[in-house]
């Protein structure tokens, strides 16, 4: 492998990925491959989960970062490295640099989750908080590189990064040689490109499906245009794949070797995260759950055995709470209703009695008496209920209407 930073557009080959695998021996974990009975029943074929959420630093990013930094020339290492990231890449660069004895500076947005900021510092990086969005953080990191001579470590747009991520593909073939489909999330494209290089060289018949969040899906229009296209203001809870433009290097590989790119909704991402937690007992971030979301979206579209790559597990606890609520609502297990009742003693107790009969668990009650839209004898109540699925939600609504209440949402 040639590691000069001047060689950033060279092709990525199977030999590069094999070289990266040797380099990562004893550094990155060979992560577990776990079967999922629930998903297998849905798909009608075996489904296995490649658990990169259990990798060191909590994601696959360590693989590419280590290979990239290890390949720097001595004078480049002496100048240090710099990166920009809201989380996973930051931690990968920080740990890789510490292991290799290279000074690292990581720029993170001011709003980055505190657990990710703390983890990046703990892995040995100097963290600088700059900007409100990743684009501003990226510009600051590149300006720092220009001023100091530090080497900028791109999260996905470099052959060494792609070769490192491709080691996931080699492990999949070793752990599940009978696989027919690999499903992997796509942001900038480094992981999908690396897996595709490794897998297609050895198993050209194996189908590779990329997954993007609907609100940050730059690859479908880019592939249609045959060039990277920028999606303005990408929006998704899956910050690990919230990338507005494909990388130049991975784009060419994805366009040539990845068989299909699908999109999933926020509801599907939430449901997938909830499924991973409840059924697989795995903490997975929304980006990492995107392959599972694709399986939930259209289970019959995937030839088995299927390997779904859970790319990361670094989810902020605050986001986790919101996503779990969203996922439960998407599955009909969390219902919010708003209604009016007569403002008299015992009215709320009567309402709760109706809900008790249909076995709806009340999580929260908001009781409003002073509002211009309410009559003098009216009160408005908003209830958050734990329910048992869509059929139970319908039963709750029907019971409220039969008891004389007007449900407003």
TrEMBL record:
Molecular functions (GO terms): L-serine ammonia-lyase activity; pyridoxal phosphate binding; threonine deaminase activity
Name of the molecule in the record: L-threonine dehydratase catabolic TdcB
Sequence similarity: Belongs to the serine/threonine dehydratase family.
Enzyme Commission code(s) on record: 4.3.1.19
Cofactor(s) it depends on: pyridoxal 5'-phosphate
Pathway assignment: Amino-acid degradation; L-threonine degradation via propanoate pathway; propanoate from L-threonine: step 1/4
Lyase keyword on record: yes
ACT domain residues: 336-409
Gene Ontology biological process terms from the UniProt entry: isoleucine biosynthetic process; L-serine catabolic process; L-threonine catabolic process
PANTHER family (alphabetical): L-THREONINE DEHYDRATASE CATABOLIC TDCB (PTHR48078:SF6), THREONINE DEHYDRATASE, MITOCHONDRIAL-RELATED (PTHR48078)
Upper lineage: Bacteria, Bacillati, Actinomycetota, Actinomycetes, Kitasatosporales
Subunit structure: In the native structure, TdcB is in a dimeric form, whereas in the TdcB-AMP complex, it exists in a tetrameric form (dimer of dimers).
Keyword annotations: Allosteric enzyme, Lyase, Pyridoxal phosphate
Record Gene3D superfamilies: 3.40.50.1100
Enzyme class: lyase
CDD domains on file: ACT_ThrD-II-like, Thr-dehyd
UniProt KW Disulfide bond keyword: no
């Amino acid at each position: 492998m040639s590691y000069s930073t001047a060689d950033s557009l060279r092709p990525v080959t199977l030999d590069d990925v094999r070289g990266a695998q040797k380099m990562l021996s004893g550094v990155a974990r060979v992560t577990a491959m776990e079967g999922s009975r629930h998903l297998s029943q849905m798909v009608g074929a075996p489904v296995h989960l490649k658990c990169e959420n259990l990798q060191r630093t909590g994601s696959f990013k360590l693989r590419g970062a280590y290979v990239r930094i290890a390949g720097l020339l001595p004078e480049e290492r002496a100048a240090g490295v710099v990166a920009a990231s809201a989380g996973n890449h930051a931690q990968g660069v920080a740990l890789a640099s510490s292991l290799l004895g290279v000074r690292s500076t990581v720029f993170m947005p001011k709003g980055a989750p505190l657990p990710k900021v703390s983890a990046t510092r703990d892995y040995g990086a100097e963290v600088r908080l700059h900007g409100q969005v990743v684009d501003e953080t990226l510009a600051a990191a590149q300006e720092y590189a220009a001023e100091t001579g530090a080497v900028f470590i791109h999260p996905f747009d470099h052959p060494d990064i792609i070769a490192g991520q491709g080691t996931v593909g080699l492990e999949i073939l070793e752990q599940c040689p009978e696989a027919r489909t690999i499903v992997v999330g796509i942001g900038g494209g480094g992981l999908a490109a690396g897996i595709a290089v490794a897998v297609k060289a050895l198993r050209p018949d194996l189908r590779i499906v990329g997954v993007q969040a609907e609100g940050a899906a730059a690859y479908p229009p880019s592939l249609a245009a045959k060039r990277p296209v920028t999606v303005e203001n990408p929006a998704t809870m899956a910050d690990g794949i919230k990338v507005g433009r494909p990388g130049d290097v991975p784009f060419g590989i994805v366009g040539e070797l990845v068989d299909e790119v699908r999109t999933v909704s926020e509801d599907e991402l939430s449901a997938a995260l909830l499924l991973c937690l409840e059924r697989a007992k795995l903490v997975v971030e929304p980006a990492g759950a995107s392959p599972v979301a694709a399986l939930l979206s259209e289970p019959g579209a995937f030839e088995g055995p299927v390997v779904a790559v859970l790319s990361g597990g670094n989810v902020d606890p605050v986001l986790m709470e919101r996503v779990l609520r969203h996922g439960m609502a998407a599955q009909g297990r969390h219902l919010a209703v708003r209604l009016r009742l007569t403002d008299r003693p015992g009215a709320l107790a009567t309402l709760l009695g109706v809900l008790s009969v249909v076995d709806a668990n009340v999580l929260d009650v908001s009781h409003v008496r002073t509002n211009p839209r309410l009559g003098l004898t009216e009160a408005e109540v908003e209830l958050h209920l734990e329910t048992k699925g869509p059929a139970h939600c319908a039963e709750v609504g029907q019971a409220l209407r039969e008891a004389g209440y007007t449900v407003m949402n």
